[in-house]
Amino acid sequence: MAENTPKNMAGRSNNSGRSNTVRSVAFTFILVCLAMLFIANMNVNNTTKTEVALSDVISRANDPEGNIAKITVTGNTLDITLKGKDQPTETSRKDGSGTLYEQGLIDYCKDVKESEKAKCEENYPVIEYKESVDVTGIVFDVLLTVLPIIAIVIFFSWMMKQANAANSQSMSFGKSRARLYGPDKKKVTFNDVAGNDAAKQDLTEIVDFLKSPKKYERLGAKIPRGVLLAGDPGTGKTLMARAVAGEANVPFFSISGSEFAEMFVGVGASRVRDLFSKAKKNAPSIIFIDEIDAVAHKRDARGGAGREDEQTLNQILVEMDGFDNDSGVIVMAATNRVDMLDKALLRPGRFDRHVNVTLPERKDRLEILKVHFKGKPVEADVDLESLAKKTAGSSGADLANIANEAAITAAREGHKAISNADITEAFERVAIGPERKSKVMNDKERKITAYHEAGHAVVGHVLPDSDPVHKVTIIPRGATGGVTWFLPPEDRNYKNIYELKDILARAMGGRMAEKLVFGDDAITTGASSDLKNVAALSKSMIVEEGMGHILRNIVFPGEDNGYYTITTGKPYSEKTSELIDAEVKALSDEAAKRAEAVLKANKKVLDALAEELLKHETLEEKELAPILKDAKLPATAKLH
Ligand code: ADP
Ligand code: MG
Ligand code: ZN
Whose C-alpha in 145, 180, 481, 552 is 20 to 30 A from the C-alpha of 22? Predict the structure, then answer.
């Protein structure tokens, strides 16, 4: 029996060894599950945080008096720590479109000098972007501190969740896809789109139809199927399309033409099928094809569209033709280049409704600026009206950009609120590029630049049909050595031939001043962009505006709105071609002569201005006035 003992003992010890292993396997299993649970459900923490709207977070983050100390961004989740707290107590989510920066969340203190950092961070939140969740650290902490009982409870709840998830997986997958584009995405309405009243007016009808399709069906009204938003880049087409969906409160299925370009063969077409079938299932709804020119450019342009693009385009046409009148789906598309679109798209029953989204006029620019400065702290004397006035030709996107840059500038300078100077700096930065104070110019270069800019300014000031000189600087900016600004007193839609000729002459003013002061051999490359502008403008005056001597009141448009293709060729003879070249040269010669005449007649003013520029670098309107007041228009530069 005794010999059994060891066996038994062995047996027993074996048994107990096995149960130890089982126990440790089980424990490890629970640990692994726990880890997985925390990986899968990091948001468990969030149940203790208050969910707040992103717009609210952004407006508080932009307010130096706001109460946010720190924002930690992990993927699409923002964890907000309030001033005076050491833990995040609020959470928010970014929606899919655009970066947080584009949506107005600015890291004010990022580029601030080390010495100013603490001061900046007293007012503005620290923004920390985390690549991915640091799971190991957190899980480890939790494992060490949380009691096993709680772990087991969570473990079971996780098991339940898994079981539920398995049951409803396919369903929730479909749902989440729909939600990605659906109406519960951050809602944009017409209120977010400033100005552009005409376009909004046109689209109100579409909104009304989407809201109450029955009303239209009853009367047998035919609803447009396709609406094409056309306009320059940055004018708010994408924003407008989202606003239509927001106003009508219907699902919005969108894709961008450029996405198609990256797809494999056949995927584009099947993506279109998918998009349309989803939209039909969720009708009334909107399909939005952004940048449609990327797939639907003319088949003969660029030597024929690619096969893949053509398949995608054909599928769009097939789907649109296959719509029943009462499908309740409206297809919207946006493009910067209507002239490049395949004509097949524009036929009746397809994109037959056109809405032009235009560059904003002055009062619209003011509205857009107000939208984008809203929620940002500004000084009391900030003058958005004069900014609106200065920004003729800017798009909504440019203006949004200026507002953002102004906030960044203010923060960098350590200001509590955005000042007029911050706005001016932002405007010039957006228009030409950042100042490059660090770029060293030697004395000779500085002197040439001063005369060059003074040349533009004097010629522009003297010529009767030029816009007034607003500002001259010899601080390098972007790619330029200096800048002379002319500002139109108001927005104008047309320019007459005298105004255009004065633009040519003042553009020549830079080169001509260099020539006059330093001699014909000393001219520099500093005038190359001026000369390009002269060449482009004089060419368009001849071939587009019929403003030549001989080629007066005649232009030669190509088959497709002036865009010549290899196949159609130039719509004029060789002889006309030579005439065009001669006319263009005559215009720039005339411009150079007039500029030279003005500068010779006003050499003293030119010298004085150049000298002041060397002294002060930048001169504003009121500083320019006393220097320029004696300048006179010589008879040789007069046109009328
Ligand atoms: P597009 O699609 O015409 O190129 P977007 O709709 O993408 O232009 O506009 C870019 C950004 O410019 C918008 O997100 C918005 O911030 C701003 N923006 C453009 N137009 C307007 C406008 N009319 N009102 C307010 N913001 C505008
Ligand atoms: Mg767009
Ligand atoms: Zn120049």
Answer: 145
